Amino acid sequence: MRYSAPKYTYDVLPAPPSGATQARPWIEDSSRWHWLEGIFRELCALYSYEEIRTPVFEATDLFHRAVGESTDIVSKETYDFTTRGGDDLTLRPEGTAGALRAYVQHRLHIERPVTKLYYIGPNFRYERGQAGRYRQHYQAGIEALGAGGPDIDAEVIAIAMAFYTRLGITRLTLKLNSLGTAESRARYVEALRAYAEPLLPEMSEDNRRRYQTNALRMLDTKHPRDLELLADAPALTDYLDPESRAHLDTLQHYLSGLGIAYEMDPRLVRGFDYYTRTTFEIQSPDVGAQSALGGGGRYDGLVEQLGGPPTPGIGFGLGIERALIALETAGVPVPEPPGIVAFLCPLGDAARAACVNLLSHLRSANLAADMDYTGRKMKAMLEQADKLRARYALIVGDSEIERGVVQARDMRTTQQTEIPVAHIAESLRGLGGLSEAGR
Ligand code: HAM
């Protein structure tokens, strides 16, 4: 019996060995993930966001309430299950609901009036797989709770843009919209329904249903005909209440001041019922058909809806797979995996015994090292050293043991230097050229 990863999932594997002829998609290369996640964590520290980790499953009801019953995510895409104990749970389809559940449960607002959280983790949506769309995907996300002004909106958008800039993704479009308040949105939905009513016979079944249950969701449609019919629909931004209008104007002013280019998109409603006011999405042609790299928005009523005190909030989720796809498509250079400092090549049993100790010594001195465990010939051991991106191969034979030395072969220049075992760590550092793995 042979098994494969479930449909529309993928495995993340060690980086291909140095010199491998077969390329590995970047989303399957764990060294790319480390590099990308490192950049995200660094940025979060810089902007003063702290990590939160919540379970990958939560009460089913949490997502129904937070994301919305009539959204595509809740009505078609969640992985729901009943436990042996009879609890109804759902694999999280997104990160906001769980983060806010924890915020309310642990009363984080008492510790921090403005709570700034970040997370990196998997989400599960039962979707039709295609390039850039998976049934398990990772998001790097943040949630900023307790501040309601456009200044923090600008900060949240700036982090997302800085992330892509640091990664080296340059072909980006930031789309911006405002959904106003619940009241102004209700006025808009009335206008949208009036506009859509005569067009319903031509619309998709999905949109006819949405018209009845939650008309704003008609704008989530992916049917080309629906999109054509909705092209002249009223614009949300024409229905904003004065405070939401002022909020949006100030945010636009801040973004311009920060040198962040954006395009207004009055149809950007973003598939979740929790959004109020600001919504945004970052798109890139380098992710193919699934052009959204990431998106987010403000959700001022959500904490209260989940049983907490009235608390404004805003956040985003950035798809990690899609960022890796965009980097790969655009051919952006990323650092090579660091490799190890030394690969030990024992020639004979006595040398093997010496290498076991030497290896331990090198690691204690914080030098990344490995050794041959298979008793291969010299040539094969050197090939292995190359594959592991070792800076030096340390060759140990009987004569070296007798004299208390090893031959350090520089894997780049092939030059060999004899160094004393007693000072091996210092000597290797002295030879220089050590990568991150051995500083
Ligand atoms: P979202 O737009 O549904 O927002 O997801 C954020 C990003 O996750 C997308 O732009 C996309 O890059 C990636 N993504 C979503 N679904 C998939 C999938 N099936 N396969 C691959 N990548 C995917 C949210 O989830 C909100 N919770 C964001 C947010 C946080 N809003 C406020 N705070």
Helix/strand structural class: alpha+beta
From the N-terminal CA to the C-terminal CA, the straight-line distance is 46 Å
How many helices? The count is 16
CATH topology label of the largest domain: BirA Bifunctional Protein, domain 2
Q: Proportion of β residues?
A: 15-25%
Ligands bound, unique: histidyl-adenosine monophosphate
Which superfamily, in CATH terms, is the homologous superfamily of the largest domain? Bira Bifunctional Protein, Domain 2
Q: If you average the pLDDT, what whole number results?
A: 95
The main β sheet shows up as: 8 strands, mixed
CATH architecture of the largest domain: 2-Layer Sandwich
Shape: elongated
What ranges have pLDDT less than 50 throughout 5 or more consecutive residues?
none
Over all CA atoms, what is the radius of gyration?
A: 27 Å
Question: Care to count the β-strands?
Answer: 16
The percent of residues in helical segments reads: 25-40%
What descriptors fit this protein?
439 residues; alpha+beta; BirA Bifunctional Protein, domain 2; Rossmann fold; 2 domains; eight-stranded mixed β-sheet; five-stranded mixed β-sheet; 16 helices; 16 strands; 20% strand; elongated; binds histidyl-adenosine monophosphate
